């Protein structure tokens, strides 16, 4: 009689669901109570798991905040680069379709990140690990901006094109227009499309 191989897929799926639940609760609590007002123990209690599990899964409070940002902004993708790559824009021949997909992803991501974007500056000031993670995230955003220019440029792009696209896609830009100026998400998306088009048209 042969032994049946142990199938760990169910266990892995359950563990992933716990991670997602923890990240969701972390996003909610950081958004409501800020960096100083949220602890690993608070998040663990809200997600109905142990503090040890949260610490082992995310490493630190900084890691937990970054996971919350990724969860809110990029869903199941590990980071912005993975979410952008999943669009498979290189396979799409129509520039207008590429532009629409980019605008949809950026707007949806920024809307999810916005409640936590206010937490980051204060948190990065007091936590060196988080400051390093934020710096790495910013470098990644510059890389995405360069890809956007490459994918949308209609000719030789302006030397400032990458920096312009980088600014257009920052959470601070979204917060300034939607959070402070009262724009709707639809108005922001329409403006972003026009601005990306202008920035990448020779």
Automatic annotation (TrEMBL):
Query: InterPro entries from the entry?
Result: Homeodomain-like_sf, HTH-type_TetR-like_transc_reg, HTH_TetR
User: Residues annotated as DNA-binding region?
Assistant: 39-58
Q: Which UniProt keywords apply?
A: DNA-binding, Transcription, Transcription regulation
User: PROSITE patterns per the record?
Assistant: HTH_TETR_2
Asked if the record carries the keyword Transmembrane, the reply is: no
Q: Which residues form the HTH tetR-type domain?
A: 16-76
Instruction: Report if keyword DNA-binding is assigned.
Output: yes
Extract the Gene3D superfamilies matched here. Answer: Tetracycline Repressor, domain 2
Q: What is the official name of this protein in its record?
A: TetR/AcrR family transcriptional regulator
